[in-house]
Amino acid sequence: MTLSADVMTLPADVMTLSADVMTLPADIMTLPADVMTLPADVMTLPADVMTLPADQRADPSERPLSTPAELVVAKQHVHQDIHNEGRRAPLKSSEVKNGRVLQPKSSGGQPGVRGQARVRGCGHSWRFWERSSLSWSSFTHGEVLPRSQLPSRPHSTGGTAVNTNATNIPVTRALKLAPVGGCVQWLSLPDEVWVSILSLLPHRDLSTVAQVCLHLFRLANDHTLWQVVSVENSSSLTDQWLSSVGGRNPRNLTIYRCSGLSITPGGLEEFFKLSQASLEELSVTSCSGPGLHGDLVLTLSAQHCDHMTRVDVSWSGATDTGIKALTDTCHRLKTVVLNGCQVTDEALNALLIRCRDSLRRLEVFGCLSISPSCLNTVSELCPGLETLNIGQIPKVTHPCLTLVTSRLKRLHSLNLTGLHAVSDQTVHRVLLQCPDLQSLTLSSCPGVTDMSLHKISTHAPRIRLLDVSGCSKVSDAGVKAVAVACRRLQHLDLSSTATGNRGVSLLANYCSTHLHTVKLSFCQISPEAIHNLSRRCKRLKLLHLYGCAYIPTEKEIRDINPTVKLYPLT
């Protein structure tokens, strides 16, 4: 250690320095006895330095700092070193003793406890919890980026901290900390872990979490948590809530079975104004109240969000008024879902002309006013359709279905629920004209028999979803044909059919690899067949047994296959 000339005074009886070697000022400082003691016959001092033996040399960082400002500069240097290294490092505290700043060194800490140190001259050990004002997190491509940190970090048990008093001089104080296992450890988790946890919560609960503390407020408002907003079965939606969500720039908003009694047109318009740069997908379905009426939603969204690609206003009371407003501004729509709406041929034809190049999915289930000529226009203007739902449209005829499917060669999903025009012959023609069909819904089609299932097994062996619920002429013979040929089947609905134990056993034997949803409501199934299906199908997630004579308990099914969710619950 090199000491300046004005640091110390040597006793007169130790040695005499000549005038040309060193002149000591009158207001010198005397070193404490426990810091350094120089024997009388140590050495001859050079003009400007004094060299101590190796075992008595102090750390160079323990030089005195002449002003409080130097303390601040020194601390900034430590932060800068941490920043340059790109890693976490503890910020060591310091102790003031007789005007000198002593840096504690690691020694004497408890075994196995990281970050402990003992202050020179003190008999107790203490832990450093302080960190740099920058925290670091590794990302997927190897880069290191800064992350924000708590305004005040919690302390560890039994530690000490350094504060500055009114004169800006560091002083030590004891820390009182939360016990191990308390909230301190939770708050110390990385932000990425917190965001992953909060992503599992519904959005109405995120608002509650945000009121706990400033740290959780910041995390709960992370933009990644509000890209896809979904609210279901809520009666407390207000204009303030919509404004809050719109300010977070959501990309997707889904409101299902909610009450719009507290929502005004002005509040809804404010939401679309705030989210006009980000909103791409909008779904407001099965809602009540004038504030969430389909026509109002479509009109206001079309005025401010003309770049939307997906719109779903099923069962919202939408009419031609809302459809025409949507048609006037939105020309890049890929998905339009109007199930249960009062739409006529005129409004739908205008929409098809506007979005003929981009439309890939169209659902008009239950739109009673749609005519066969309009469906012919659909197939003519939009040959690129991949999903078509025309269920419960009573005006559809067999020639119409044949013509429509002959033009839609890219169909992957087709829903013909409740169409009396559908027969085994119709199914055969559809399968020949749509070779890529992977989802087929024939629910409540009285003309469908086992012959249709044989045709499906022959022409659509790659089918993933099949719904023949309500087709009373479907029996074990048709189920056998599908089970043997369609090994990739994932979703099968046989509710209210003549399916029995033999058909269920065949499904368990041949479709056990991919099958995850089976609906057997109102079928005559024995306990052994149900147990065998649950045991063999390792990926089975959902099992419907409404109206069956034997319904096992949930515990009984879980003991066989813990992944299965049984309905009804018993």
From TrEMBL:
<dbReference type="InterPro" id="IPR057207">
    <property type="entry name" value="FBXL15_LRR"/>
</dbReference>
<feature type="compositionally biased region" description="Basic and acidic residues">
    <location>
        <begin position="83"/>
        <end position="98"/>
    </location>
</feature>
<feature type="domain" description="F-box">
    <location>
        <begin position="183"/>
        <end position="229"/>
    </location>
</feature>
<dbReference type="GO" id="GO:0031146">
    <property type="term" value="P:SCF-dependent proteasomal ubiquitin-dependent protein catabolic process"/>
</dbReference>
<keyword id="KW-0433">Leucine-rich repeat</keyword>
<dbReference type="Pfam" id="PF25372">
    <property type="entry name" value="DUF7885"/>
</dbReference>
<dbReference type="InterPro" id="IPR036047">
    <property type="entry name" value="F-box-like_dom_sf"/>
</dbReference>
<dbReference type="InterPro" id="IPR032675">
    <property type="entry name" value="LRR_dom_sf"/>
</dbReference>
<dbReference type="InterPro" id="IPR006553">
    <property type="entry name" value="Leu-rich_rpt_Cys-con_subtyp"/>
</dbReference>
<keyword id="KW-0833">Ubl conjugation pathway</keyword>
<protein>
    <recommendedName>
        <fullName>F-box domain-containing protein</fullName>
    </recommendedName>
</protein>
<dbReference type="InterPro" id="IPR001810">
    <property type="entry name" value="F-box_dom"/>
</dbReference>
<feature type="region of interest" description="Disordered">
    <location>
        <begin position="83"/>
        <end position="117"/>
    </location>
</feature>
<dbReference type="Pfam" id="PF12937">
    <property type="entry name" value="F-box-like"/>
</dbReference>
<dbReference type="GO" id="GO:0019005">
    <property type="term" value="C:SCF ubiquitin ligase complex"/>
</dbReference>
